[in-house]
Here is the input.
Amino acid sequence: MATKRLAKLPGTTDRRIDALLTLLAENSTIVISGAKIAKEIGVTRQQVWRWIEKLREVGVRVKGHARSGYHIERMPDILIPQMLSHRLYGTPFARRIYHFFKIDSTNAVAMRLGEAGEPHGAIVLAEEQTAGRGRAGRSWTSEKSSGIYCSVLLRPPISPAHAPLLTLIAGLAARDAIAEDLDTQPDIRWPNDVLIGGRKCCGILTEMHAEPDRVHHAVVGIGMNVNQTKMPEAIADIATSLRMETGKLHSRLELLIRLLRYLDRYYNQFLTEGARPILRRFAQVSSYSEGKRVRITTATESFTGVTAGLEPSGVLRVARDDGRGTVPVLAGDVAEVS
Ligand code: BTN
Here is the structure.
């Protein structure tokens, strides 16, 4: 199988740090000498020491030092490309994984990769974002190693009119991945906010480069609150994390693997069977799909009404309270009203 070389991006995690982490994780029960690690991954012992220090900074608990050897105390919950790639085998997301310890926005990087011709399925991950982008020009708080910050590059053979379906697909995948870690069923607020007990734990920003009749590339950016113990004050009433809901630590690695596998499944189903099964599934799991009293806020207006299902393109229909009939909502904020 021909593998194109990964584009060299400034700031991506050195593949040898990836190898170091994998080596430590795979030998978690023994102490490995710095010399042995250095030999295995082809760097100096000083470099091994520097990278161990870097890993400690992001919370990996490595015991020992250069002379005595190193030993990992606990499997780190870092989104290690090598491990991800292995577990995503058979999906398009296994082969081109770009990892950053810190980056402005994974969506910004993925959009640039898309423009540079990067193939379908590339993913960009970060342990921390300094300028995480949210919908409607908002920002996305991206605390170090607590959440999942992931952007997926897709090259779907569809017209821009069908693009809202991609957004639904990503929301369904995130929702199903989260559901496996909870005793309750998460909800989806159209188009793709995943909610637990009415509070948002996952948001998705889809950005795209399109021509009138085809999508050139789309970037689906997923932000999931996983192990945060509290939310910033400004969003404390409306946001939550999986840990805040369950009181437990959750594995970001496992969640991300599940999310990407579901994404692959829904995406293929959409390409082979069309929109119908996606819309059916959305209606099953989203209380916002039909019969929900909502306030819609778009760039130009704000009105209340009752949701009335989705159009075949994935657009939400709302029966307006002001007597102006049932209208399609292409984009905007949806809030439940009592
Ligand atoms: C929302 O406002 O609900 C969407 C939030 C999307 C955040 C994610 S985090 C990974 C990716 N990179 C970004 O800059 N944004 C998305």
Notes: The mean pLDDT is 92. The chain has nine helices and 14 strands. The longest strand covers residues 199-211. Residues 105-107, 129, 132-135, 138, 140, 149-151, 193, 203-205, 221-223 surround biotin (CB under 6 Å).
